[in-house]
């Protein structure tokens, strides 16, 4: 008889990344169109002469750098090969078969994938106007609930929850349920009522905040993320992580990227100026564009012949514009478009104008 994987593993639908662009513009993975900090590139070069040496398994210097940058306790920080790996560790440390996680309807897909690996069930709670519905999420809590995942801002919707609402979610959760605040796009948000959740992660025994170097820092290829939370949660994650989970070049680049606040600021400013240009221009074509505080936006297309999201995707592709179909999120009428460089964004606007006018 052939080796047999676990049944819950065979239920997993593997994550499908954004299409790569052989030519044209890749606007399918929310990458930083400005690249990354030149300091990060220089830092990696210093590591090239030591590729035979194992990395620092505890990512100690990087955790120190994070601690200094954010004014938080380094002992309560853990680094991962992307925040994806942190979610994997969470599932390994906190989820057993029969357990439940809660996420909002259009929440980031990776939460469900890691839950499935542990045989846990994902309860997906309907959203209101593409924003997480706190009352409905709280109503979904059972004695099997172990983790509530909230991406804030959320991908693929681009929407965010005001901090009051996040507080209300936390206040309504039992103390033994872990609230994971995924703040992958926090640096882009310019709203007075937004918070990444850093203070909550500092002050409560059941709140963990995750961050990534993949977006504002432009280091997606290196796979680097981190989490900050209660000592007991961080301790559990450290027990299940691989001994050398973050490679040495990623650690060097991360430390350098944190120092280059000017690059991060430039990235956020550029993104937000381009979003301010993109959103009204695409709305002008008659399409529904959801408000976004991330480095991407979600567009809803009509269901009428020739004007569907599928048709639009093909049309954009014919113009060399690779965007993300979000069918896997249950949004078959929508496309998610990352903010690119100016010329790419202008081409997106022109293409959607032509598509709608045709
Ligand atoms: C991009 C993204 C991440 C980052 O994942 P990494 O593994 O760190 O690259 C996390 N959460 C959300 C919601 C994202 O969109």
Radius of gyration: 20 Å
Mean pLDDT: 96
How is the largest sheet built, in terms of strand order?
Answer: 2-8-7-6-5-3-4
Number of domains: 2
Helix content: 25-40%
What is the string of helix and strand elements? Answer: HEHHEHEHEHEHEHEEHHHEEHEEEH
* Beta fraction: 15-25%
> Any idea of the CATH class of the largest domain?
Alpha Beta
Unreliable runs: none
General form: globular
Q: What's the CATH architecture name of the largest domain?
A: 3-Layer(aba) Sandwich
Please describe the biggest sheet, giving its number of strands, its sense, and whether it closes into a barrel: 7 strands, mixed
Instruction: Could you tell me the CATH topology label of the largest domain.
Output: Aspartate Aminotransferase, domain 2
Subunit structure: Homodimer.
Modified residues (N6-(pyridoxal phosphate)lysine): 215
Keywords: Amino-acid biosynthesis, Aminotransferase, Histidine biosynthesis, Pyridoxal phosphate, Transferase
Catalytic activity: L-histidinol phosphate + 2-oxoglutarate = 3-(imidazol-4-yl)-2-oxopropyl phosphate + L-glutamate
Description:
With 358 residues, this protein is α/β, with parallel strands linked by helices. Strand 5, helix 7 and strand 6 (178-182) form a beta-alpha-beta unit. The N and C termini lie far apart (58 Å). The chain has a seven-stranded mixed beta sheet, with helices on both faces. The chain folds into two domains: 7-34 and 262-357, Aspartate Aminotransferase, domain 1, CATH 3.90.1150; 38-260, Aspartate Aminotransferase, domain 2 (3-Layer(aba) Sandwich). It has helices at residues 7-10, 38-47, 60-70, 82-94, 110-117, 134-139, 163-172, 198-203, 231-240, 248-259, 261-284, 309-318, 342-357, and strands spanning 25-26, 77-80, 100-104, 121-125, 145-151, 178-182, 207-212, 225-228, 288-289, 296-300, 321-322, 324-325, 334-338. Helix content is 39%, strand content 15%. It contains 13 helices and 13 strands. The structure holds pyridoxal-5'-phosphate. Residues 30, 82-84, 108, 151, 155, 182, 184, 212, 214-215, 220, 225 line the site of pyridoxal-5'-phosphate. It comes from Ponticaulis profundi. The modification N6-(pyridoxal phosphate)lysine is found at residue 215. InterPro entries: Aminotransferase_I/II_large, HisP_aminotrans, HistidinolP_aminotransfase, PyrdxlP-dep_Trfase, PyrdxlP-dep_Trfase_major, PyrdxlP-dep_Trfase_small. Its cofactor is pyridoxal 5'-phosphate. GO terms for molecular function: histidinol-phosphate transaminase activity.
């Amino acid at each position: 008889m052939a080796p047999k994987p676990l049944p819950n593993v065979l239920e997993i639908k593997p994550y499908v990344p954004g299409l790569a662009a052989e030519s044209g513009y890749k606007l399918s993975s929310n990458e930083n169109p400005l690249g990354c900090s030149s300091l990060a590139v220089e830092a990696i070069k210093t590591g090239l002469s030591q590729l035979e040496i194992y990395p620092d398994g505890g990512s100690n210097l990087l955790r120190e750098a994070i601690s200094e940058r954010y004014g938080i306790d380094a002992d309560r920080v853990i680094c991962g090969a992307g925040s994806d790996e942190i979610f994997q560790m969470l599932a390994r440390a906190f989820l057993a078969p029969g357990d439940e996680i809660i996420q909002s309807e259009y929440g980031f897909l990776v939460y469900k994938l890691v839950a499935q690996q542990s045989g846990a069930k994902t309860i997906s709670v309907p959203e209101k106007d593409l924003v997480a519905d706190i009352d409905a999420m709280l109503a979904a809590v059972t004695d099997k609930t172990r983790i509530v995942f909230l991406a804030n801002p959320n991908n693929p919707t681009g929407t965010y929850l005001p901090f009051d609402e996040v507080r209300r979610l936390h206040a309504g959760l039992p103390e033994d349920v872990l609230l994971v605040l995924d703040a992958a796009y926090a640096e882009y948000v310019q709203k007075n009522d937004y918070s990444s959740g850093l203070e909550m992660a500092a002050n409560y025994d059941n709140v963990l905040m995750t961050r990534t170097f993949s977006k504002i820092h432009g280091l997606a290829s290196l796979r680097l993320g981190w989490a900050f939370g209660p000592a007991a949660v961080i301790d559990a994650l450290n027990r299940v992580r691989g001994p050398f989970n973050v490679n040495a070049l990623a650690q060097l680049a991360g430390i350098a990227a944190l120092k280059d606040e000017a690059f991060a600021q430039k990235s956020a400013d550029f993104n937000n100026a381009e979003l301010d240009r993109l959103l009204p221009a695409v709305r002008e074509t008659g399409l529904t564009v959801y408000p976004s505080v991330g480095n991407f936006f979600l567009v809803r297309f009509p269901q009428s012949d020739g004007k569907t999201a599928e048709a639009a995707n093909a049309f954009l592709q014919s113009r060399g514009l690779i965007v993300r179909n979000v069918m896997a999120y249950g949004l078959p009428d929508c496309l998610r478009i990352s903010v690119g460089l100016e010329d790419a964004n202008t081409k997106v606007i022109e293409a959607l104008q032509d598509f709608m006018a045709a």
